[in-house]
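Lab notes, practical 5.
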Amino acid sequence: MKNLILVLCLLMSFSTFAETKIAVVNIQKVITSIKEGKNVMKQLEKAFKKKQKELKGEEGVIKKLQKDYQKQSLVLSDKAKLKKETEIRAKIQALQKKTMDYQKGIQKQEAQLKKPILEKLKPVIDSVSKSEKVAMTFEVTASPLVYAESKVDITDAVIKAYDKKY
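Output from the prediction step:
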């Protein structure tokens, strides 16, 4: 008797779940599509281009050093060769470190600029989810949701609602 009741409960819960409407939203697309997000992307692009120009300049210096070394290597003493090679390696390592530091800085700046948007986005997603009458909403790029019989993409509705509200 216990097993029969358990089976009936399970069947009822599965039938209820089968009718559940699930939504997905692409938050990255929302951020890059809304007006506020486009401004953030422009700021990040400007900062990136400035740093990229600086890195390319240093890369040019290293290439020139390498080219000069190749031309002079036949006439340089072993000690002078070693000194030049060490100098070039040090510049390459410094450039790699600077590149990594710039990447971390850009990522940190991106997180800081996107944080207020994400905080305002949550209630908008909640509102759109309720108006679409969905039981659950998953972020499409991070969710483990692989399949849902009845799933709705609310990304465009969230973009419109966000721009309308803010």
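Observations recorded by the TA: The first strand starts at residue 22 and ends at 25. Helices lie at 2-18, 27-33, 35-72, 78-131, 155-165.
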